[in-house]
Automatic annotation (TrEMBL):
Molecular-function GO terms, alphabetical: DNA-binding transcription factor activity; transcription cis-regulatory region binding
DNA-binding span(s): 59-78
GO terms for biological process, alphabetical: negative regulation of DNA-templated transcription
Protein name: TetR/AcrR family transcriptional regulator
Record has Phosphoprotein as a keyword: no
Species the sequence originates in: Paenibacillus albiflavus
Top-level taxon of the source organism: Bacteria
Boundaries of every HTH tetR-type domain copy: 36-96
Keyword hit for Phosphoprotein: no
Pfam families: TetR_C_1, TetR_N
């Protein structure tokens, strides 16, 4: 449903142009042959460029050229690259949120949320390169916020506390997702898993990292854990970190007299 009927609302008109575009508050130009260009076509072209060559390759000139138009033609639809980035992120965040399942606990719900968030950064590595300039305000991004808040719906906590939990989970998902995407890009460029984990350099590090200079790092390097040589098979770095976060949330709930 179009939001054009609300365009005269005083508060709505305060929205940044990229946000307003994502909600459909700004009409598209009608000049030129019908259907020759649109916001969706511009955004799709920009995403294809970012998927292929990274976010740094995205420019209004590059996008216009890929579509066979002049840059000025694009500016009639999207007035800046900053707005284009907002719309690109909004487009790839269009996912189907799983239906509410009251049979699973909040920990499993949070795992699902974090895993899906990480997956976005793995599919679209350039997502992690978009600067964060404010709170999420576009429709699909707010679906993610709403989903995260659904996981804490039974918590007897303040809205501030719930939003702080959301930020904790989202920050962890972005960190792991970006790291995972970086590793995948490195492997596509020719790196091996042993190189990324540092296995190929264990011997060298054992000589370079001395007890005198690195007294706390020394034993970890010597054991082989630092480079992954002796990492236990049953431990996954992501799972370990997420479980400790969930343990912390559970401890906080228990501290405030809430058992579930």
């Amino acid at each position: 449903m179009s939001n054009e009927s609300k365009i005269d609302n005083e508060e709505i008109t305060k929205l940044p142009s990229g946000i307003a575009l994502s909600w459909g508050f700004i009409k598209q130009p009608k000049r030129g042959p019908k259907g020759e260009l649109s916001i969706d076509k511009i955004v799709d072209a920009a995403i294809q460029i970012a998927n292929q060559d990274g976010l740094a390759a995205v420019s209004m000139n590059r996008v216009a050229s890929s579509l066979g138009f002049t840059p000025m033609s694009l500016y009639r639809y999207i007035t800046s690259k900053e707005d284009l980035l907002v719309l690109m992120q909004e487009a790839v965040c269009r996912i189907e949120v799983p239906p509410l399942d009251e049979t699973i606990g909040w920990r499993e719900e949070m795992r699902q949320y974090v895993l899906n968030s990480i997956r976005l950064f793995q599919i679209y590595p350039w997502m992690g390169d978009i600067p964060v300039s404010g709170i999420p305000m576009t429709p699909n991004n707010l679906d993610f916020v709403n989903w995260a808040l659904r996981t804490v719906r039974h918590f007897q906590l303040s809205d501030y506390e719930k939003m702080s939990i959301l930020l904790l989970l989202s920050s962890y998902a972005k960190s792991v997702g970006k790291l995972s995407a970086d590793f995948e890009q490195a492997m596509k460029a020719g790196a091996t898993l042993d190189t990324i984990r540092g296995n190929d350099y264990t011997g060298a590090l054992k000589q370079l990292v001395t007890f005198e200079r690195y007294p706390y790092l020394y034993h970890v390097v010597q054991s082989g854990v630092y480079t992954g040589d002796m990492e236990p098979d049953e431990i996954d770095d992501f799972d370990f970190g997420l479980e400790r976060i969930l343990d912390g949330i559970e401890h906080y709930l228990n501290k405030h007299g809430q058992k579930d």
